[in-house]
Structures are given as structure tokens and as C-alpha cells.
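REQUEST ID: PR-0412
SUBMITTED BY: lab tech R.K.
PRIORITY: routine
TASK: structure prediction, single protein chain
INPUT:
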Amino acid sequence: MFGVIGGTGLDKIEGLVVGKYETIKTPYGETSEPLAFGSIAGQLMIVFIARHGKNHSIAPHLINYQANIWALHSVGVKNLIGINTVGSIDTRFLPGDFVFPDQIIDYTYSRKNTFFDGVDNPIQHIDFTYPFDSNLRNHFSRASRMLDLKFHTSGVYACVQGPRLESAAEINRYENDGADIIGMTGMPEASLAREIGLNYALICPVANHAAGRGLNKDGISHEEINANSEKMALNIENLIKRIIGSYGN
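STATUS: complete
OUTPUT:
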């Protein structure tokens, strides 16, 4: 079964017929919101959760990533799609494009980032060489091609703490580190999914150029990010439907 975690601009999926909402009790506390169990096109089963909760009320560093991932796994999700809105450090990635990153750099701190901390569960050291599932990423590309979307098949995602946006100097630093796009929610979501055995990959809609770059050389507003994210919502929804509908065919 597919799970989808919605991000900025995607707190629901149009066309998702919800059969039930379920509050899942987890060993790690409450999820961002109850899980929505439903179907697309009358038959494609999906579980959906908005990581920022209702009305985008939970800041990136306060999301209970452990609870969200554990809950999705507990109800039978095997393939998990994360929708993570980003700014593009590489100005070739334009607002409206999609990026399917193949690597990630974690700049976050003080987030509960493992199920295996030696307290509740024995310590485990997972392999994280390639953090995203290659089969899912390849399928994202095929589905995007069918929909004639503009997409990029690889990129390095820099995950920062937030919720503030970055300075131009910080963006220069992340570029020097090898990052192409920047967001606030890719970690520890990716590593937790790997720990618990989920096939996980990111769809990253580009909402803006990063601070001091390209179209945002003089600054970025939260309103701009939200507006661009909302413009992309229909493409995101169509892409999710195509991915889930044709996966394995």
C-alpha cells in the first residue's frame, strides 16, 4: 500500500475519496493529524497525512517524525512518497519544476531522529549510502514524462532546521557543500523510513530560488512560497495519481 506525506501547499489530495480517518496510538506520541484512508479513481488505496497538521500549524522542527513514520508503517504502508517543497540553490531548477533528489545532507539538530537510540530499542547503524528508493524515483520520472511535467532526476537536498528562511551566505555555504535544493522536512523523515523498512523517496516541487539567487536575489516571502506551492498543487496531485495508478505496470 502507498502512503503519501503532504507538505507545504498539499494538506489534502483532490480526488481522494476518504473512507475513514484513524488516530493511531504510537510509542512516540501523537501524529501530526489522523491518518486518512481512501482511494483514488475508485480503486487505488492510499494513506495520507499532512506532516504540518491542520492548517499548516506545526513548524518543521516540531513535527513528530517518529510518530508519523511509525503510524504509516503500522497500518501496512510499504511505499512512501514524501512531498517536500524546496527552494532551488541551482538556478537551473525553476519555480514550477519537480526535483527527485538522490542524496541528502542533514543540517538539522535536536530532532528525535532514530527509533534505535539504545533506550527503547537496541542501537542499530543503518546503511544510508543511498537514502532514497531508486525504484520509486525511476517511477516518478516515468510518470512525469507521461504528464509532460518539467522534472530533474537527481539532486542533493540540504535539510535545514527552519522555520526561518536562510541567509544568502548560508546558501553559498550549502552550495559549496554540494547541495542543489533546500528544504526543512527531509530529515529525519528519510532516515526513519529507512530504519523501519519503508521504500521512501521525495517529490520536491520547487517554489522559489534560494536566498540571494536568481528570481529571489533580493529576498523571499512566505506568501510567495505558499502562492507558488498552491499553483503546483494540481500537478502534484496528478503526478501522485499517475504514480500510484501505474506502479508496477
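NOTES: The chain has one domain: 2-246.
REVIEWED BY: pending
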